[in-house]
Structure to design on (176 residues):
């Protein structure tokens, strides 16, 4: 449960497949719910075509009870924020290996002219194979591309914002 969305883990019993369902109310969308669905569907199509072990984006979207539901593959494993809190700083060679994987994921996105749009430690999961996977890729940026500083958000929410975006409100770019 977050301020802007509720996330569920769903299981398809027949296929033995886990999915993440992110439910977003219309009040947290930059536009009406039908326009948001229209915007997220092409993103889901693009992600179905990307072959990278380092990124996970939306697979589908639909409207349920006046909420937009975005479906993504479930990446099992802790996110890097939890690992950092539990274990403390990582040795340099581990950080380097993790960063190489993150950069590979970002390059796969850039090659498709896509951006993550919400890159932070809680959006990076370490899977059972030891690979870092960028999750929730493109969702926030597609649904709410503008940037604003709000008093109800803790300062760490802005740690990942490129400095040149802070007072301009410009959408993110590959450079930012």
């Amino acid at each position: 449960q977050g301020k802007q969305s509720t996330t569920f883990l769903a299981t398809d019993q027949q296929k033995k497949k886990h999915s993440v369902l992110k439910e977003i109310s219309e009040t947290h969308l930059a536009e009406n719910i039908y326009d948001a669905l229209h915007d997220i569907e092409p993103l889901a199509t693009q992600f179905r075509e990307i072959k990278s072990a380092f990124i996970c984006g939306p697979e589908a979207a639909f409207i349920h009870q006046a909420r937009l539901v975005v479906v993504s593959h479930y990446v099992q494993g802790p996110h890097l924020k939890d690992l950092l809190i539990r274990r403390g700083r990582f040795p340099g060679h581990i950080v380097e290996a993790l960063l190489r994987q993150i950069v590979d994921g970002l390059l796969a996105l850039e090659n498709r002219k896509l951006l993550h749009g919400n890159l932070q430690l809680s959006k990076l999961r370490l899977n059972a194979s030891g690979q870092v996977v960028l999750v929730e890729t493109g969702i926030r940026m597609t649904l709410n591309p503008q940037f604003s500083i709000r008093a109800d958000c803790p300062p760490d929410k802005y740690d990942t914002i490129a400095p040149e975006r802070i007072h301009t409100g410009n959408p993110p770019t590959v450079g930012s």
In short: The beta strands are 5-12, 17-25, 58-64, 67-73, 124-126, 132-134.
